[in-house]
Amino acid sequence: MSVKDLRFVITGSGTGIGRATAQVAAAKGAKIMVSDLNDANGKQVAEDIRKSGGAAEYFHCDVTNPQEVEALMKATADAFGGIDVLHNNAGIHETALAPADQCNIEGMPLEVFRKVLEVNAVGPWLCTKYALPYLKKSENASVINAASTGSQSGYPNNSAYGTSKGGIRLQTQNLAVDLAKYKIRVNCYGPTAIATDMVTNFVKQSPDPVAFEKALIATSLIPRLGRPEEVAELVCFLASKESGFINAAYILIDGGSLAWRGSADQIGL
Ligand SMILES: NC(=O)c1ccc[n+]([C@@H]2O[C@H](COP(=O)([O-])OP(=O)(O)OC[C@H]3O[C@@H](n4cnc5c(N)ncnc54)[C@H](O)[C@@H]3O)[C@@H](O)[C@H]2O)c1
């Protein structure tokens, strides 16, 4: 599959899945605008890509801030001559904003619930809105949204995240309808637990982190956490011309964990 010369904007790409996607796509010849709230991380990712011979720049952007989002899209077009791929990757979980015992509906402050929705669902909408004038000029335009297995199933103390990820799944389908006339594809993917800071922090908040991590992969048919690079390869496929007939899709990348209702020990894993 080819993403060579495609111009990517990746939000929240200072670490985790976004960073892996920046690195994997750059290694395949894409041009990457790395973007994050955390400037030190983001600049490092862009610098490392350049040192390996790839093309990358960094631009600070909080995806909830319309002025910063508009400036990010303009900076990308100025740097690379346009935008082909918007990867709406930036995201947060309530456990990053409040102690675990406040991440249920009884304890969660309203502002935490709103913040998670703002970053995970409003942010991608804003980024798509401001990338649109540039995407319309691309011959291989697509928007790729980070959904989650939480887009389709519940989890304890996950109501804000689950609401936001269910929302982004349907936002994907609705925007794919609106943007079809411009030949812009809009897809999303749903990972289960992937080994990044988000999951490490989530696990750390548990009273028994070892048992909690085991529980996270208890129904997986591939009994381990996913790797950021595995998600990055899926994003590259969705961005490539080879996936040109895939639109408005939600693609699970979950080791088979949502396929059944058992636990790994029942089948000797
Ligand atoms: N890791 C998983 O298990 C998993 C599973 C399903 C979905 N996802 C989704 O994948 C995406 C990336 O997850 P990750 O695990 O790499 O997360 P992460 O926490 O490791 O990294 C997220 C990045 O987003 C940035 N960010 C946070 N708020 C931002 C904002 N307002 N504006 C711009 N950047 C912001 C952070 O600074 C960070 O660099 C998220 O949308 C997440 O919900 C992750």
Could you describe the 3D structure shown?
It is built from eight helices and seven strands. It is of the alpha/beta class and 269 residues long. The chain has one domain: NAD(P)-binding Rossmann-like Domain (Rossmann fold, 3-Layer(aba) Sandwich), CATH 3.40.50.720. It is globular and about 50 Å long. Bound molecules: nicotinamide-adenine-dinucleotide. The site of nicotinamide-adenine-dinucleotide (NAD) has 29 residues, from helix 1 and helix 6.
Kindly report how far apart the N and C termini lie.
Answer: 33 Å
Sequence stretches where pLDDT stays below 50 over 5 or more residues: none
The CATH fourth-level homologous superfamily: NAD(P)-binding Rossmann-like Domain
Instruction: Specify the structural class.
Output: alpha/beta
Number of domains: 1
In order across it, which strands form the biggest sheet? 3-2-1-4-5-6-7
SS summary, helix count: 8
Specify the overall morphology.
globular
Strand content: 5-15%
Which cofactor or ligand species appear? nicotinamide-adenine-dinucleotide
Overall number of strands: 7
Q: Mind telling me the C-alpha Rg?
A: 18 Å
Indicate the mean pLDDT: 96
Largest β-sheet summary = 7 strands, parallel
Q: What is the H/E string?
A: EHEHEHEHEHEHHHE
Task: Please give the CATH architecture.
Answer: 3-Layer(aba) Sandwich
Helix content: 40-55%
Instruction: Using the coordinates shown, work out and report the CATH topology.
Output: Rossmann fold
